[in-house]
Every structure is written in structure tokens, then in C-alpha cells.
Amino acid sequence: MNPASPYRGRLAPSPTGYLHLGHARTFWQAQARARACGGTLILRNEDLDAARFKMEFVGAMLEDLRWFGFDWSEGPDVGGAFGPYSQNQRMDIYRAALDTLRAGNFVYPCTCSRKDIQTAVAAPHAADEEIIYPGTCRPQCDPWQAASSQLSNPCQSGAISWPTRGNQVALSPGERGGVRAGSLDTDSALGLQVGGEVVSAPGRSDRVELARAEGAKPLVFPGNDAPPPARYAWRFRVPDGEVVSFTDGHFGRQSLVAGEDFGDFVVWRGDGVPAYQLACVVDDAAMLVTEVVRGADLLVSTARQLLLYRALKLAPPDFFHCELLCDAAGQRLAKRHDALSLRQLRAQGATPSELRAGWVSCQ
Predict the structure, then answer these.
(1) Is 169 helix (H, G, I), strand (E, B) or coil?
(2) CA–CA gap between residue 142 and residue 236 (Å, rounded)
């Protein structure tokens, strides 16, 4: 985090069920860190899941958070300078980000269903148990490889590489030293090199708006001029073999290998809605969030999102991941645990202070 930037944290619940104790503890840590820095706490309503979204969950979310002791200064119920604070009202900025990714050919159309991927022969699993995409729809055109080789890029005009901080020489991923040939390190990567000229990445004060790419055209596979089918997702192509490294505020140094620990991932769903990874990155950047506090189950997603920040030329926030909360049987809490929802516990007479005293981490 840039010490000159005022701290801005966020709570980002999804109204697809009642909030449980696990949400409460992670959010409590986020609020504590914001208060310790004298910063701003934002509430963002992540309501893009139309299949599970219910208005009753939105009302319950606001009521339960207030009851537990949360207090935010920006959000869907109080407004703020960086609204709207409900994702279903922010589609224009998501489409602009998708246009930017398409213009750089960082994404490609994919018609594979979840079942197609699950039944793929010997499909490996990512570090977070997601199945690594087998590459069924992946084109041969590779913008990452062309950028690292500094050769003429068949995917886009102009090779791209990422420099390091300060006066160090800007190196392409293939030239930069480290654990492996090719790495993205958020402790050092802060700018963009295009055609030999280094341009600083957008600072937090000037990245409220994502510029819509001019002249963005549908991606066409080499040797295939046919347009993609009517219903398809847009999938982000990861730079295979590149090490994505970052320092987590709680778990310390993290390094994940693109293509091994995680694979190509969906950024825009087939039903016309942005996926979590893209919406989260776009919103955190536009709302000038300086630190993301969330559960440890999203550590791998951080690597995915850092690649999106780079492709969109946005400065990433800091990250702090919390241990997950488990029930008496040692199972990670989920919204299906109605007995441990804040709403149910409140109805049973529990108090917020009692609940905070009984938190147990997963081992």
C-alpha cells in the first residue's frame, strides 16, 4: 500500500443467503484494520448472482451487520463518492474492462460447460480445488509469450512487459530473475512498458474510471474467421509457467505458478454477467480500495486477480487473508449452515460479544 494513500477497506458480502459467523469474523478483521489506520470502510453489495439473489437477503445483510457492530461510511444505504455500491448497477464499467481485455486479446470466447470441464480426461485441479481448464477453446495466439520474446505479436500490436520499481531496468517476464523464468511480483511491478517506453501504472487517485478500449473487435482465432457462437463465456488466458508472487498481510510471502496452481479462468459468464474475478478487481480499483481483507479460501484467486490488474494496467491493493471459521465438526462454514447464521443466532438470544468470544479457526 502506498503510505501516502488514505486507507480504504471494504466489506463485500453477496446476498445469496444469510451471513454466518465466518463472514462476521472476516468482516470484523476488515473493520478493525480500517479503524486502526483511521481509514474508510466501504460496504459493497455483490449481487450479480441472479440465480441465488433475493431482496430479502439484502435487507437481512444490512440489518445483521449493523446488529453485530459494523459501521461503514460508504455503501448502498448511505451513498458515497464512488457509487453505486451494488454491483448490478455497475455493468457499464465491467463492460469497459472486458473491452480492454478483448482489445489486448487477454481473453478468448469459450463454449465449454462446467460439465465439459469436469469430464475432461485427466483434468488436474488447481490449488483451491478448482479444475484447471484443459484448454479446449484456447487459441494458439499467445499475447504473453509474444510480450516476453519481444517478437512481433500476432495477437496485438506492440509488445508488453512489466518493469520493476524505482531505477531498476524494466525486464520482460522471460528475462526477469526469480524462482522461475518469468514472474509477476506485486512488491516490485508498478509500471507498463510499451515499445521501450516505461509508463507508470495508474495511481489510486487517478484510476476511478477504466478507459473503454477504442476499436475493440471480437476475437478471431488464427485461420478461423467464423464468429463465436451466440452463447459463450470470455475466459482469461494465464501466462503458463509464470510465477505470481505477493506478500499477504497475514500469511506472508505467497507464490503460485500460472498453468499449474491455477489455469485459464472465466471473467465474463455465458449469461452476460461478469464473473467474480473481474467484477472484484474492477470495483476495488474504481473504489480506490487500498487493502482487501478476506478469507484464506481466496488466496489463489489473488494470483488470478493480480494478472487482471496487470492486463488492465491498474495498481493492485494490498491483501490480508484470514483463517476460515469452522463448525464443531471441523467443517468450514457456508451459507447452508443456517444454525450458525447471524440471523438465527440473534433469534436465539446470542450477543455479538459472546459470538466473538467463541470464534474457532479451521486447522
Answers:
(1) coil
(2) 11
Residue pair 354/326 in contact by the 8 Å Cβ criterion: no
Summarize pLDDT for 289-318 with one digit per residue, the tens: 999 999 999 999 999 999 999 999 999 999
Where b means 16+ CB within 10 Å and e means fewer, 131-141 reads ebbbbebbbeb
CA distance 295 to 303: 14
The H or E element spanning position 43 is strand 40-43
Integer-rounded Cα radius of gyration of the chain: 21
Q: How many CB atoms lie within 10 A of CB 52?
A: 12
Nearest residue to 12 (alpha-carbon basis) of 45, 54, 52, 51: 45
Helices (H) and strands (E) in the chain, counts: 9, 13
C-alpha cell recorded at residue 167 = 531505477
Detail the DSSP E strand segments found in 98-240: 107-110, 160-161, 183-185, 191-194, 197-200, 233-236
Separation of alpha carbons 325 and 359, rounded Å: 7
Distance CA 209, CA 202 (A): 10
DSSP H/E element including 317? none
- Which backbone phi and psi does 116 adopt, to 5 degrees? -55, -45
Write down the pLDDT at residue 185.
77
pLDDT at 116: 84
**Residue 157's pLDDT band (cuts 50, 70, 90):** very low
For residues 287-303, one letter each, b for 16 or more C-beta atoms within 10 angstroms of the residue's C-beta and e for the rest, the string is: bbbbbbbbbbebbbbbb
Beta bridge partners of 320: 293
Are 219 and 102 within 8 A, CB to CB? Answer: yes
**Cell digits of residue 242:** 509464470
CATH architecture, range 8-228+254-263+277-344:
3-Layer(aba) Sandwich (3.40)
By the 10 Å C-beta count (0-12 exposed, 13-18 middle, 19+ buried), 210 is classed as: buried
> Would you tell me how many other CB atoms lie within 10 Å of the CB of residue 182?
22
Our CA angle for 214, 89, 27, nearest 5°, is 115
The three-point CA angle 87-91-93 to 5° equals 100
